[in-house]
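Technical note accompanying the year-one report. For the benefit of new consortium partners, we illustrate the data format agreed upon in the data management plan: each record pairs a sequence with a C-alpha cell string. No post-processing was applied to the example shown here.
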Amino acid sequence: MRDSIVVAKHVTEAYYGKSADHSYYFGCSSGGKQGLKMIQDYPDFFDGAVVGSPANWWTHLNAWNVQYGNYLYPAVSLSTVSQCDGLDGIEDGIVTEPTRCSFRPETLACAPGQNASTCLTAPQIVALRKLYSPWVDADGKHLFSGLYPGGELGPGGVASFYGDSPSIYALGQQTFKYLVFNDTTWQPSNFTLADLELADAIDPGAISAINPDLGPYALGPRKGKVIHFVGANDALNSTGNSYHYYEQVQTTMKTRHGVEMDGFYRLFNVPGMYHCQWVEQGEAPESLIAAHFKDNNATSGEVEFTRPICKYPLIPTYKGAGTPNEASSFYCGSGTPGQDAPRKLREKLHDVNEV
C-alpha cells in the first residue's frame, strides 16, 4: 500500500503541476487497519485519517473468531434488544450503548418440554456468557473484546455462523490454516493459546496495526488528525476492540508525550450500526449527525431518521420530548436520562401514528 500512495502522489503532482495541499485517508475494516498502519509506520503521508472499525489486532481477532465461533445461538437477538433498549431514554429497537447493558442469557433458559429451537440449554448459556465477556488468559491478560449485545443479526453475528460454510467463521480458520501454519490439515478444534502466541510472533505480512504511539503522526510536521468510528453493534470486529485501541493510544500519548487525545484523535460510536455501515453528515467537532435511509438504501434519498453520533465516551440520549426521528430530540450525554423518558417516547410515537 505504501508504494501505491507514493505513486499516486507523484501522478497527482505531475498532472496538476504541484503537490496536493493536504492528503487524507479513509477506510473501514481492513481498510481501517491499513489506515492505522500507515499513520503508525509512515506518519508523514497523511494530514488526516478516517478509520472505521479497524481490524487492527488481526491475529487476536481471528484467534477469537476460532475460539468462540461455534458458540453463537440465534435465540438471543430479540432478548438482547428487549433487555437493553431504553437505557438511553428511547425504546426504538436500537441498543445505543451495549457496554451499559447487563444482558442475562439465563432469561432464555429452556423450560421442561420447551422446543429447544426457542430457548437455551445450560451449556449454551455458559457459552453465551463467554461470548459476551472479554477473552482473557489464565492470568487475566486481555486477549480480545467479547461480543456486545445488539449485533446478533448483523455481519459477524449469529446469522453469519450458520449454514454449511459460514463465511465469517471461515476467516479465522483460514488465517491460521494458511497464514500462520501453512497447513491445510489444521483444524480449529485443535486451537490453543500457543497458536495465538505463534501468530503474534510471526505477524504474517506485518498485518497487525497495534502500535499505540502516534507521536510521530500527531506531533510531526503534518500535525495529523484521526477520526475513528465504529458501530455500537459490530459483531464481526467487536466494538470493544476500537475502545481498547483508543484507550491504549490515550495512555501512551499522555505518558510519553503529555498529549491529550481530543487534540488529534476522536472516536465516534454509531448506535445501531453493524460492521462498516455508516452514512453521516456534518463535521467532526463534538458530534456528527448521522442519517438512516429507508430500507437501508442511501440511493433512495429517503431519510427514515437522524441521530447525533457522539464523541466517545458520550452517547446520544433522548431528551424526553420531541420526535424520536430527529437528531434535535437527542443530546450527547452520559446516558442517564429521566426515568419517564421511555414513557414519553411511547406517547410521542402514539401521537405520530394517530396522525
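Partners are asked to follow this layout when depositing records. DSSP finds ten helices and eleven strands in the chain.
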